[in-house]
């Protein structure tokens, strides 16, 4: 039996420092969305500042990453069984790439990328 996959609740847009404030202002001031500063000591390694935007049923995370030259989009996928999903993906030539960003301790999850390099976090829903 194959594992089940579905869209998660989080999308992260990794932004260069030079475009971060302008992008935050776009969602806050132009689109009128609620933007909440989520910056704290336990944000992901390499992320200097992070804000959340309620983007319909998902949370859009705007992460400032000072060594990025262009923006990247990172997606979340839910699965019913992370290890079965990892095996299934491996059978299709998709290997975990957990070096992309450290995972929180105890989180059963893996980073992968799709064929064009867009990172996806594979994990069970909360």
Give a short synopsis of this structure:
19% of the residues lie in helices and 37% in strands.
Give the second-level CATH assignment, the architecture: Roll
The SS-based structural class is: alpha/beta
| Broad CATH class | Alpha Beta
Give helix and strand order, one letter per element, not per position. EHEEEEHEE
Widest beta sheet: strand line-up: 2-3-4-1-5-7-6
Q: Which spans of ≥5 residues are poorly predicted at pLDDT below 50?
A: none
Query: Could you give the distance between the termini?
Result: 23 Å
Strands, total number: 7
Q: How many helical elements?
A: 2
What is the CATH topology classification name? Answer: 2,3-Dihydroxybiphenyl 1,2-Dioxygenase, domain 1
Mean pLDDT: 92
Describe the 3D structure.
A hairpin with a 2-residue loop joins strand 3 and strand 4 (58-64). The model has no long low-confidence stretch (mean pLDDT 92). This protein has helices at residues 17-30, 82-91, and strands at 5-15, 35-37, 49-55, 58-64, 72-79, 109-113, 119-123. It contains two helices and seven strands, in the order βαββββαββ. It has one domain (5-123): 2,3-Dihydroxybiphenyl 1,2-Dioxygenase, domain 1 (Roll). The chain is α/β, with parallel strands linked by helices and 126 residues long.
């Amino acid at each position: 039996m194959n594992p089940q996959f579905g869209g998660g609740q989080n999308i992260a847009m990794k932004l260069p420092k030079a475009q971060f404030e302008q992008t935050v202002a776009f969602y806050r001031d132009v689109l009128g969305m609620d933007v909440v500063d989520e910056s704290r000591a336990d944000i992901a390694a390499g992320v200097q500042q992070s804000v959340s935007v309620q983007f319909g049923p998902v949370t859009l995370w705007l992460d400032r990453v000072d060594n990025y030259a262009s923006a990247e989009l990172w997606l979340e996928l839910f699965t019913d069984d992370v290890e079965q999903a990892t095996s299934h993906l491996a059978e299709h030539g998709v290997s975990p790439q957990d070096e992309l960003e450290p995972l929180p301790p105890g989180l059963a999850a893996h980073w992968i990328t799709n064929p064009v390099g867009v990172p996806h976090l594979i994990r069970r829903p909360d």
